[in-house]
Amino acid sequence: MDISKKKEVNLTQTAYQTIKEKIVHGELLPGEVISISAMAKELNISRTPVTNACQKLEHDKFLTIAPKQGVIIKTLTIDDAREIYELRAAIETYSAKNSFDFFSQLDIEYLKNSYDKQKLAVQNGDAKAFMSEDTNFHRYLLSKYENTQFFSVLDILFDRAFLIGLNSCKNSFRLLESLKEHENIINCLQQKDKQGFIDAIEKNILDGYKNITISRHNT
Questions:
Q1: If phi over 0 gives left and psi between -120 and 50 gives alpha, with beta otherwise, what is residue 169?
Q2: Which tens digit of pLDDT belongs to each residue from 48-57?
C-alpha cells in the first residue's frame, strides 16, 4: 500500500471512530441531519475519508446516507434493540460456556474491581459511567474465549447497546438491578457454578432488553 493510500485509510478510521463516538455518547442525536462537508471541516480533513467513514457507519447501522439531504443519524427501534440483545445473549452465553474453565482468581479480581467501579457510578447516579464499565465488564468476560469474529461482531453491538441502553438506564432501579446481576455472575465464578454462570450472563443481557421495552412503553 502506497503512503497516500495508507494515509487515506488512517483518516477514514479516525473519522469513523470520531463520528461513532459522537453518536454513541449523544452528541449527535437520532434523526439529526449532518453535512459531510461540515464534518470534514470540523475534523480538518477532506470529504473523501468522511464519506468513506459514513458509508461504513451506514453499514454498521449507526446512520443513513440520504442523497441531497446529507447524513441522518439512525433512530434505533425496539426491534433493533431486540435483535441486538438477542444476538449478544447468544454469543456471550456460548462464550461463557466454553471459557468457564479458563477463569483464574486474577480474572475474578479484575471483575470485582470492575464491579466496584460500577457500584461507585450507581452511587453517583452516573448512568454513562456505569454503562461504560458495564461494557468493559462484558468485554472482559468475552475475552476469555478467543474468537476474533465474536469480538468484531460484538464491538459494534456493544456500541449500539450502549446507545440504546443509556437512556433506559437513567433510572436508578435498573442500575441497581444490573449491579446485583453482575455480582451474581462473579459469585457463580467463585463457586465454580458453570450453569449458574451461563444463566446469570443471559439473564443480565435479556433483562437489559426488557428494561428498554418498559422504558419505551412509559415514554
A1: alpha
A2: 999 999 999 9
